[in-house]
Amino acid sequence: MSAFGTLTLLIALVVATYAGVASVIGARRGNRRLIESGRAGVYALAAVLGLSSVALLYAFLTHDYSIKYVHHYSDASSPLFYQITAYWGGLDGSILWWVFLLSVFSAVAVYLNRNRHRELLPYVVTVLMAIADFFLYVIVFHKNPFDSYLTDIPTVGKGLNPLLQNAYMVTHPPALYTGFVGMSIPFAFGMAALISGQLDDAWIASVRKWTLGAWFFLSMGLTLGMLWAYEELGWGGFWGWDPVENAGFLPWLTATAFLHSIMIQERRGMMKIWNVTLIILTFFLTIFGTFMTRSGIVQSVHAFGQDTKLAWIFTIFMAITLIVSFGFVIKRMPELRSRATLDSWISREAAFTVNNWILLFAAFFILFATMFPTISEAVAHQRITVGPPFFNKWMVPIGLVLLFLTGVGPLIAWRKATVSHLRYQFFWPTLAAVATIAVCLAAGLGEAPAGVICFGFCAFTATTITQEFIRGVGVRKRNTGQDAVSSLMGMVIRGKRRYGGYIVHVGIVLMFIGFAGTAYKKEMDVKLVPGADAKIGKYTVHFTRIAHEEDRQKEMVTAEVAAFKDGKLIDQMRPAKWFFHNHESEPTTEVAIRRGPTEDLYITLGNYDLGEGNVTLKLVVNPVVDWIWFGFMLLAIGTGIALLPDALLERLTAGVTAPAGSAAGTAGMVLLLAAGAGSAVLLRAAPAAAQQLQQMEQASADAPEPTGVEENWLVRNIMCQCGTCRHNLLECESDGCGHAVQDRIEIRQLLNQGRTREQVIQYFIKKYGSQVALASPIDRGFNRLAWLFPYSLGVVGAVGLGYGAYRLGKRSPAHGSLTSEPQISDGELSDKLDDELRNLD
Amino acid sequence: MTSSATLIDPPAKSPGEQSSPAAPAVGVAPVRRRVPIWLLGLAGAALAAGYALLVEKMHFGPPLVMFALGGMTLAFTGAALIRVIDPLAGNSLSGTSGVARGGRRKRELEREKQLVLKAIKEIELDYQMRKIAEPDYREMVERYRTRAMRLIGEIEAGDDFRGLIERELAMRIKLDAARPATAGTSLPPSTCPSCETVNDDDAQFCKKCGAKLSAG
Question: In angstroms, what separates the C-alpha of A708 from chain B's closest C-alpha?
């Protein structure tokens, strides 16, 4: 099987190279035969890689341990499902999975567009095949999943890490991967437009749905990642700015920017260079994300380990991608220059431009902050940490501005808004925001100003969207004479992009409410003897007993806890730790969550002593956190509406058959959905809790609950140095981490001795030999760059934006691209047009 | 289905019809009979399953299913590779018939027209919701109406490009004749003041005499 698999990979490499070269030569020489043959090559590549995948799966199912990859990630006793998902459980297989997905998406994209964009398509094929070639090169020459043992063939497989065997691990990584790979298609079309010089909006129309679909899968991957972190990791939060989370978030930001700014190009013919740049950046960031996880260049809970050669291969590919892509952008710059003008700063174009700037700022900031420890180590030979507090400092205001713009965008007209119109549009949303802020302050939520502002903006945006729907229905009722419900349906169906988008925005608002809730999170660690109580917020937690059980797969240590709310028993909760056989050093944390629309009670088991029956529990009250997941559901519904095929809608509404072309994009989406839903990539290795079972039983000394401003600040801004968790001292403790407990005791002692915050920090710098324990680097020396960069990035972006807008605004409006067309004054045609417009209602 | 065993596209269909590779060709006589790709895959799977059961004596279970899938992908691979080589061997190309091309073009125009019509509708809605000022509304609608009418004209003309060009030309001439009367004497800013050459809208210097154009 090994030889056969390798052979299919080699054939795939040849086919991909041939298809790319044949297409480009065919296009240059105008040779239809070569183009046709190259196009068929794309189908052939998908088929050949399908064969490779089947070969690998067959090896897994027949337990062919002569193949190293099979030996590493599978064993005969694991369930069939995990034997199949082991295909993408490791590095080599996951790259094969990447390129297989790419080949299938390419085949679908090429098939759907075979009758359109004749000039564009050969170049699309070339670009896609070049990407496929790169990944095939990696697997054939460096990471072949079919590598075999020549002698000493093992008889027992090592088996997949049990930490990876859960539902979120099945859904979260493949969704992210589908999103990552899906972004290659719009990139290929964008590049093809640049190479062929077909720079009109045709490529945008072709890729809009692809981008939206890929964006949706990125969102899904990120949300499932948050859900996984929340339910499986047991540190009480859902987003820790881990490099790999960031890697998924970066292309999401640029893709969001792209989805908004293509509207400007479609409507106004502006920002062509910008859109191409955005799609190049998005693609680059997907590759960069893959690179970060695969090469071990950044320290992360997800990384597969150091692989310098792979790092170099990726670096070269990324450099080539950037040079070639931007080379073509520069070459086509004169043709890309926009002929339209920015009429006013108070227009939707301008709002979108600002939105783009903010999104890009966020992307660059996260990229920089994620890479900064690596840069610092290379340049200043100093290990430092850039932790959540540093990210939050910047990302909270950025998020708030974005949320505000989400609300403002729909209210402002294209081209030019006038003051009276603005007043009419902004009255209710502003009122809602002010009222919400007042209510929040009255309810005593003022302790976290960012939270209050966030709730205010959420109210603003939600009112905006509600107002859009109500006024839209009103107008439609007047125009068509229908009742409210039919008007609403008709309006959403006619403007599915717009109203689908609004529903996505509502989803985002709900998510923001959930994010803001974390500002009001309460958490505490308590050591309890059987029969003891602990109080947190409105809840009383009664610890009954500790249980030790065992089944075929694992040993389980469970704390039995009764939860009371306002004196009434609401739930029996069972936080636990599971120790899978052969993986005892990596116990899984089984969180007990009592969910509610207003708040979750969240309990994890920390240290315990089976002999005396004592436990340390981490109790967390997370307000409104579940709104994030509801928000995502709305986001999914909204995306679904925006992606609904015109053909289907028209059949549903008017019984009119639609042009075949419009169904094409949808078929692609169905495929994307199928690929995402029917597969699972176990690329995210769960963070290993380092404590051994034996160590755990020696319940260590209790960490003092932080009191006072200084102590609270310190435990939140000093990172645990256990080497695996990337959490601060407060959050790490309940994973049973002795490290954090020790540090917290030291902080308490130092403060009791009268040391200041600065002195405690100095103590920890000395203790660990560098600033590595600090959540954000101290603003001194080389580290000053970490603080300087975001500021300068913001300033440069603002100046660039201002200059661009000035340039656009300076041109006289008479030069609008479409106005140069002569007016047609044909009565007959005009009547026909009116008829058609009436039919649309 | 992304691939097909032979190279002949079905002839053009009416715009509303969904084209599918397995659909029988009507109208234009096909050069070669096409084998539906799913049939090919099924045959491959059946062959592989038969081999596994009869020769390898495998029992029914996941490995057998995977083996059959292997047979199917092998059949797909073979078919796709034939498609790669076929055009090079000089066999007829897909989509060469003029009828098909015309139909496709018409579909594209139809699609574009729908987009423009929707844009007009959206602007009307925005205006009625009091987001756009009236002059801006009029200007934008006029622009899109012009484009829509041009598209309707093109669709109606069908393949009669000659008629279309003549019609367009007549319209422009009529328009040019009407323009000086309404637009007065001022030249468009892109017209060279010294040699009266009409330059690109965003040109800063005349492409004929090199004189600086008035800043616009």
Answer: 52
User: SS3 for A266-297, per residue?
Assistant: HHHCCCHHHHHHHHHHHHHHHHHHHHHHHHCC
Structure tokens at A736: 């049973």
Look at residue A94 in the predicted model and tell me its pLDDT. 85
> Residues B65, B69, B70, CA angle at the centre, nearest 5°?
115
Please compute the mean of the pLDDT values over residues A190-217 and round it to a whole number: 85
Please name the member of A50, A414, A476 whose beta carbon is closest to the beta carbon of B132.
Answer: A414
Closest CA relative to residue A680, chosen from A296, A164, A247 = A164
State the alpha helices, DSSP H only, in A332-387: 333-336, 348-379
**Nearest-CA distance from A421 to chain B in Å?**
6
A575: enclosing H helix or E strand: none
Closest residue in A to B176 (Cα) is: A822
pLDDT of A565 reads 87
Structure letter (DSSP) for residue A659: P
Cα distance between residue A312 and residue A318, in whole Å: 10
Q: What single string gives the DSSP state of each residue in B103-161?
A: HHHHHHHHHHHHHHHHHHHHHHHHHHTT-S-HHHHHHHHHHHHHHHHHHHHHHHHTT-H
- For residues A118 and A122, what is the distance between their CA atoms, to the nearest angstrom? 8
- pLDDT score of A38: 92
Residues sharing a CB contact under 8 Å with residue A474, sequence separation 6 or more, in sequence order: none
Mean pLDDT: which of B4-8, B21-25, B102-106 is highest? B102-106
Distance, CA of B152 to CA of B158 (rounded, Å): 10
**Of A103, A93, A14, nearest in space to A59 by CA:** A93
Segment A434-447 shows an average pLDDT of 88
The per-residue pLDDT of chain B, averaged, comes to: 71
Q: Whole-angstrom Cα distance, residue A111 to residue A125? A: 11
**Among chain B residues, CA nearest to A426:** B131
Contact A204, A239 (CB under 8 A): no
Q: Nearest 5 degrees, angle CA A172-CA A176-CA A179?
A: 145
Q: Could A829 and B149 be called an inter-chain contact, meaning their C-beta atoms sit closer than 8 Å?
A: yes
Residues 572-631 of A with CB under 8 A from B: none
Within 8 A by CB and 6+ apart from A258, the residues are A186, A211, A275, A278, A279, A282
CA distance A348 to A355: 10
Whole-structure pTM value: 0.78
Beta strands in A167-257 (DSSP E): none
pLDDT in tens, A165-187: 677 777 777 888 899 999 999 99
Span B17-60, pLDDT tens digits = 333 343 343 344 444 556 788 888 899 999 999 988 888 888 88
**Mean pLDDT value of segment B61-65:** 86
Task: Judge whether residue B9 has pLDDT over 60.
Answer: no
> How far lies A416's CA from each of A349, A637, A776, B133, B186, in Å?
9, 31, 43, 8, 27
Q: Which of A41-45, A674-678, A731-735 has the highest mean pLDDT?
A: A41-45
Token look-up 């920390």 returns A606
